[in-house]
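User: Predict the complex with zinc ion.
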Amino acid sequence: MIDASASYPSPPGSPSSKDRVNRGKTSEIGSSQDELNTTALKALLGLSSWQCGAISKSDKPCGWQILKKHRRHIDTHLCSMLTLDQSSPRLQYDLEKLIGFVHCHHHQHGPPRQIRLDEWISVFPSPPDQPSLRPLVERQIAKCFGRPTTTCMGTSRKGIRCNKTIGGQKVANCTKTISQICDAEVYLSDIKLDHYLQVLAVNVCCHFHTDQSLSKNVPAWKEKILAIRNEADLGPTDLQHKSTTRGSEKQIPTPNRHESRHASVKEEQRKSSKGQDRKITLPCPSTDRLGNPHLHWPSQYDETPLKIVKRSESPNDHTTSYHDIRRQMMDALDDEDKKDGFLYIYEVKGNKGFVKIGYTTRSINKRHDEWTFDCNRELVSLFPIGATEARRVPHAHRVEKLCHAELSYRNNVIYCDGCLKEHFEWFEVSPSEAIAVVRKWTTWIETKPYLFDGSLKEEEARKSADIDQFMDTMSKNTGDIRTSR
Ligand SMILES: [Zn+2]
Ligand SMILES: [Zn+2]
Ligand SMILES: [Zn+2]
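Assistant: Here is the predicted structure with zinc ion placed in the model:
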């Protein structure tokens, strides 16, 4: 999932390491070594232009303007942070709060958030008893792996990039592994570093390319990390570990050998064992304890709470959606709308109260399998219920859009750690409410309200001109108690 060709550029106005090191020593920034004013801190954090500034997908800083109502909070908040250094317990919390004020909703999660946090932390002074270069080293190590992607980074015999989707579980494993590698506990230990690089290597690619990844990526990454370590004059701590830090070694997550979901793992294990032996420089009991890189992370679905990046502003007023509904109805059908298809609703394990409503022109099972693989979430199907409802309906995409419009007052945008995308089709409603809405619009579309050319029949347009009345009638006819009052 790592595109080695891409690397993270710095956001605008972010301080260079030189600025960071010299912070407080120059007259422009602070009047003495320990003093810093809010304006200078704002400049160091790249906030002077009141823009989001997160690195977007196009590698450019996001130009979204910070809301006026947030600017006052930012100033107050920065003022309270002037005395912090990298060892302050509240620094991480305060910076996360700052992200909430500064970043637009597209950049509240995932790599843009992490990159910004890392940049910002480096702005604050190191405490006197900590090697000042360490946070910088960790940031440099993170950069060795490039921008996260969801596709295999292997190459075919013809030298063409594989680009096969690796699935949400591997994507999430890569994120977790990189975070471990950026911990001094790992990057300063040759044994652990070897192990975690192997874990990363088997997770960045599809199962066809694990051998290739172990033999090519591991030495390349290790070379870069050793160079960073050498540059910072940080040597391996393995010798000390053997005698003094036995306890901390135990904190490394234990591989769960029994939870493997894919039969191919065993095959991968067999195929990669050669490459694995090759990578570990010294035979050592510790490597056995760290285990097989394929099995390091347990094979399991993500059941953590969904990451909501945007919530509806009026979740208690269903009539705020009526304007959208009318607009959707009036729009002429486009080519996609004209196709038949299936409507479906599902929730994911661990997240009751949230439903996803979608449509597909293929089979629902196939679409569900794709969601499961890409997002690494266990789906619980809520609709269709029974064989009668599992039928093709005309203009399925339009039905989906009408359902989304009606429930837009409860719409949430979710950031997905599996496919690294935002999902826009999640609604904070009960399953019964979602089902009632899908049934209502399915019934309506089956009355053939559109003409052959795709335009709405005049009679329907007239009826829906009074949208409140129209919705009341629709709800009464279909038994949707929620809107029929
Ligand atoms: Zn942004
Ligand atoms: Zn591949
Ligand atoms: Zn996803």
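The pocket of zinc ion (ligand 1) is lined by residues 52, 54, 62, 64, 103-104, 106-107 (CB under 6 Å).
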